[in-house]
Amino acid sequence: MICGSFSCKETRVKNLLKSLLPVALLATAVTAGAQDFPNGKPITIIVPFAAGGPTDKVARDLAEALRKPLGTTIIVDNAAGAGGSIGANKVAKAQPDGYTLLLHHISMATMPTLVRNIPFKVESDFEYLGMINDVPMTVIGKPSIPAGNFKELTAWMQQNKGKINLGNAGIGSASHLCGMLFQHAVGVDMTAVPYKGTGPAMTDLMGGQIDLMCDQTTNTTGAIEAKKVKAYAVTTAHRLTVPALKDLPTLQESGLKGFEVTIWHGLYAPKGTPPAIQKKINEALKVALKDPDFIKREESLGAVVVHDNRVEPAEHKKFVLSEINKWSPLIKAANVYVE
User: Hey, what's the signal peptide range on this chain (predicted)?
Assistant: First the structure.
């Protein structure tokens, strides 16, 4: 077609505007969706561990605290397996619309080294939404162990080298990581007994089928209060104030200098979740972390709700990357992995 220079330019401009119209409409729809989010639609929090375990408990407490500031139902969905990577991968591959979130613990920092052929990248396949809590660990034993305190437990472990079964909730679990460090610190080789979750491991510990376990206070405090297990120490730098745990010494004061393990939990969304939606979830998380009922429930289990700058997404990610650098050499030295 032959046309004057002005008419050709006018035609090109019209064609350009037509081509940009769908993009503009999509951007408007995304913006509107972010403003309306969650618009009454349920949000699912994926927990990459079995129901009834310590991380599941944190997720269900948080779900209740998030319900009001987000104005919608929060569903907790358990997707356990492969050191926590199955559930994490489910979220990494989910639609980045804010309706599928991940609540994960310290395993976010250990999976890159611990899990072989991990199908996602912790550093780049998630949006970091903020930290939730820090959870101490406790060293506990079956009721029939004759040791009444940590000094006596140390002597008992030395006398029973090669005979001690150390339970955990599965390779890559918090109890597995703590157990690895514990037996290295005390210099006693133990037989690691992995279970499919904390629940069955605790059942066998209370029943005397295994001897020891190092697990989160969110899971052990009730059993300690009920005297169904023997408690010997906590893994924090200072003693805890929870009534059931306040008399337990720290491992550091018991002679294991430098031994400090705290399990933390954070909230994540799939990479590409709109910034406006990320902001809404982060703001709701900050409200939830100040909820008196949530704080009370967490503190009753020995957990400390995060109120420092790690509740900010950038600081959350910075912290996780520092934890990856901390745990990677320890896991490589132990030569353990998850297929």
Answer: 1-34
Distance CA 250, CA 276 (A): 43
CATH superfamily of 43-134+264-334: Bordetella uptake gene, domain 1 (3.40.190.150)
CATH architecture of 136-234: 3-Layer(aba) Sandwich (3.40)
Please give the backbone phi and psi of residue 333, each rounded to the nearest 5 degrees, phi first: -65, -30
Phi and psi at residue 304, to the nearest 5°: -115, 115
Return the H-helix or E-strand segment holding 264: strand 262-270
Q: Residue ranges of the alpha helices (H) in the chain?
A: 5-36, 54-70, 85-92, 107-114, 150-159, 174-186, 198-206, 217-225, 275-288, 292-300, 313-334
- pTM for the whole thing? 0.80
Cα angle 302, 177, 244; round to 5: 20
Q: What's the pLDDT band for 17 if we cut at 50, 70, 90?
A: low
